[in-house]
Amino acid sequence: MKASVERLRWGLAGAAVLLLIVLAGFLSYGRYKARKVWRDLVKRSGIHISHETDGFTYSQSMQGRTVFTLHAAKAVDHGDGTLTLHDVRVTLYSKTSSDEDHIESAVVEYNQKTKVATAAGEVHMDLQVPGGVANGGVGHSEDEPEGKRVIHIKTSGLVYVSDLAVSTTSQPVEFRYEGIECTSKGAEFDSDDGRLHLLADVVMTGVVRKAPMVIHAEKADLDRGENTVALVRPVAQSEGRTAAAASALLHLRKDGSLEQAEGSGGVSMDAGTRHLKAAAFAGTFGVTSLPVTSKLTGSVVLTDTSAVRPMHAQADEVDASFDALGNATSVLGMGAPMVTFVDRKAGNPDLAREMRGNRILATFKPVAVPGGKAHKAVSKLSEIHATGSAMARGESVAKATATQAAGLKSTQVFADDLRAVFDANAVPNSQLRQMFGNGHTRLKQDAPQGEQQTSSGDTLAVEFAQQAGDGGLEIASATQAGSVTIHSVPAARPGELKAKDASNASAARAVYDGASSRLTLTGAAQYTQGETSLTAETIGVNQRTGDADAQGHVLATMASASANAKAGAEQQMTHVTAARATMARASEVAEFFGTDAHPARLWQGASEVEAATLVFDQKKRSLSARPGTSGLVHSVFADTAPPKEKKTVTSGGKKPGNGLNLSQGDDRIVRVTSATLDYSDLDRAATFTGGVAVDGISGQAHSQRGVVTLNPTEPGAKPSSGQPTPFGGSVQKIVLSGDVRIAQPGRTGTGEQLVYTAADSSYVLTGTPAKAPHVVDAQQGNVTGATLLFHSGDSTIVVSGGAPGTKQEKPGRVRTETQVKQK
After folding, report:
1. Of 622, 758, 735, which is closest to residue 689 (Cα–Cα)?
2. Per-chain mean pLDDT for the chain
3. Does 463 reside within a domain?
4. How far apart are CA 459 and CA 26, in angstroms?
5. Residue-wise pLDDT tens digits, 538-571
6. Residues sharing a CB contact under 8 Å with residue 427, sequence separation 6 or more, in sequence order
7. Label partner for 163 (CA 20 to 30 A): which of 62, 268, 620, 810?
8. Which H or E run contains 42?
9. Domain end position, chosen among 174, 208, 237
10. Pairing between strand 202-208 and 180-190?
11. Structural domain ending residue among the three candidates 154, 174, 194
């Protein structure tokens, strides 16, 4: 981008100077002055020659000052109205200085009847150029010596028609001025209207401002009245550069320096591999004829076929401004301007660059050439300002990592107003350092393996850094603010069958750090990936690894459904609040952190867990909950099964139904307090250790360890393969072990294990041979046995020698039951 704009500089101004300035500034002036002198000489001569005179000299004075002196070796009057002068030398004297001009011709014939003067042989003119014209015409530098500057003119066959005031020759005309030479095949000068015509094959060669130059034109016309020079099909060549146009019109100052220039009918400029074309060109020039402004219009196109940096640029119109030394200060492209180029360097992949907009302004600053003088400074790009649907694009080398191969990374920046700042002191070219966007900003990055990230916001600020090994520019940091939204598409990692779900984020402000690939969202930050969403005051995402962390009022929401759920079934939503959270993409582990005073909280429906730390492992489909230094884990299980009809166990041991009424208030809620919680969604089991307290199921229980098993979320369903669904579904079974103590209305008990089965609302309390289970019932009194089976809500207790379903319970064994109907 930067190089392409710099290369426009010669195309906008340099060629115009080479094409126009010398011919307009000096040659036209010299021809005009020579023709005027000859005309005045013939008109004023009034000389009387008697037949033949040797050593003839004639002078004419005005107001006491000699105007010119004519000397001829011989003058012959042929008696028929014609005069012949041999070896003619005319000296003209300036009215205001000591300057002298000289005109010489071998033979001059004058017909007094036709008033036609003819120089039969060669005509030589030495005309001193006034200082204003000399300086204006070529713009001599300060270190050039001052002195008399002379235009040397040579021609032959010169004819002057006095009645028409026209001088003409069909012979070659040569001009020489300080190393500059110009030739023309034929010339004509009309002294009445002050027009000089170089008739054909105009060629000028020489050195202008120390640059070799050749100019060709089919013809050239000078109008001294209008101070203009018109060129037909001019072509200028200098130092491998060529400029051409169908026609050119130059506007001169009175001192002969170039003031304005116009090219039309198709303007083209070539320099090496660069080619510029436009429909028309217009420029203004200073008193030293260096460019001040220039304008290219009509489908302006600049191309460069360089093998190192191919480039293409175009615009409807291009305006440029220059400083006093002719160096570009600004270049403005309008009408859908665009610039694209490719950096090609040995050992590195091609890196593309591009910039577009409705209007692009490039600003330059003078930079001293190392070892050069101050006035030899060159212009280097310092800023580009694009407005109106602006876009900048660049590629960089993405280095290989443990999870992906090396490749090209593409970065695009969009904005209503986009400004790029360059380091003009960088060598050899200006280097992009910063970019600022306002209004509908968008930053898009595409990585080699298919990763893609797009962010949008109101404002954007980007810092760039040069990659090591000349791998191009890389984003060092980026800040986007104002309703920021981000969409990220990850690539499939090695071993993954498919890529992870795309993620979306939003915040008031987003900051990206290139060194760590970290994106930080602040201000109502929200991050969503797949069925997981995260909101917090601050969210950080590692763009390389996909890891995320959150700080301040964290809320996470996860949705999942049973693998066998019916189509359209409502997803179960799991919510987590915490002070902070981390999510590791590779391990698929999410951790939520709080304190004992303000624990992290998870809930699904009416079920929930509170602990200082909650850890989800999606691969293992597990949840772990841990307290802080002195807290506990609090869990709530809500039975989501429909209420069952209350029935009573009859005498004789028959059990036609359930004796537990689950429809009454907290009977459907189970609260567990423990030191730890570990849940496996594969087993649908929550394991509690470190001292367990259970409240619910019409009573309380304590033990050292507990396991709560849940039913599948759908009848007959298998665990899903997505997010874990902790506590979804109804309680299937509760097993408490280790120093079990129970307390129910009208009943207490102790044992080593208590099994609650929700299907029949039964409790089985067991112990050890050394310590049998024991129940104290308000109706039954003390009951002890190897196994005690009872139901909440009635006084039935079944005592057996062994646990039901074991070998200790032999068929046909007599058991004792005592039943007291409750009132």
Report:
1. 735
2. 78
3. no
4. 56
5. 999 887 787 889 999 999 987 764 444 444 555 6
6. none
7. 62
8. helix 28-44
9. 174
10. antiparallel
11. 174
